[in-house]
């Protein structure tokens, strides 16, 4: 079982990740990126990535295409810059204080490939009808709540990093 990240608007490249590597990819993105997210559009992106949680959608069911990110045409360049900055921090091994173990070389390779995908994606590729929306919060957890332990933005069912410790 695996998940793939694609960039079909641009080319046929694909990042293939086992379920474990996918969890690592999402958790690292949220752990590192949540530190840097201050503006609402940055926090929204963190919530969106957190929501790629195999404990919600099932193991092997959280792959995505770059066009499915919650892009906003008006904020596109700022969103893109933010994701590239977060990916850069990860590759440069910054903001890793909350990490339980250091990402391995395969994980870093995945982030380098992801950086290229985001760099190649352009505002004219944005198609809001193809986006995976951020799921509604029911009030128990509120939008932009963070995990007391991991400091990451929660999705509608909690913290993606806490969930990773649970069995499927
Ligand atoms: Zn947590």
Work out the number of β strands. Answer: 3
Q: Compute the gyration radius: what is it?
A: 15 Å
Name the beta content range: 5-15%
Q: Roughly what is the average pLDDT, rounded to an integer?
A: 94
State the helical fraction: 40-55%
Low-confidence stretches: none
**What's the helix-strand series?**
EEHHHEHHH
Question: Total number of helical segments?
Answer: 6
Q: What is the strand arrangement across the widest sheet?
A: 2-1-3
Structural class: mainly alpha
Distance between the termini: 13 Å
| Largest beta-sheet details | 3 strands, mixed
Bound molecules: zinc ion
What's the overall geometry? globular
Describe this structure in words.
The protein is mainly alpha-helical. The chain has one domain (2-164). Helix content is 42%, strand content 7%. It contains 6 helices and 3 strands. A hairpin with a 7-residue loop joins strand 1 and strand 2. The mean pLDDT is 94. Bound molecules: zinc ion. Zinc ion (ZN) is lined by residues 147, 149-150, 159, 161-162.
């Amino acid at each position: 079982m695996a998940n793939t990240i694609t960039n079909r608007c641009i080319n046929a490249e694909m990042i293939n990740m086992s379920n474990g590597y996918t969890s690592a990819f999402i958790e690292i993105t949220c752990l590192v990126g949540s530190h840097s997210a201050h503006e609402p559009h940055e926090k929204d992106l963190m919530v969106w990535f957190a929501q790629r949680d195999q404990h919600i959608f099932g193991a092997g069911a959280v792959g995505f295409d770059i066009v499915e990110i919650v892009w906003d045409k008006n904020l596109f360049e700022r969103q893109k810059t933010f994701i590239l900055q977060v990916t850069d921090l990860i590759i440069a091994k910054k903001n890793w204080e909350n990490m339980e173990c250091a990402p391995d070389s395969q994980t870093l390779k995945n982030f380098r490939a992801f950086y290229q995908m985001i760099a190649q994606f352009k505002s004219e590729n944005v198609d809001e009808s193809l986006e995976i929306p951020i799921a509604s919060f029911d009030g128990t957890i509120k939008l932009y709540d963070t995990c007391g332990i991991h400091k990451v933005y929660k999705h509608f069912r909690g913290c993606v990093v806490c969930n990773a410790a649970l069995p499927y």
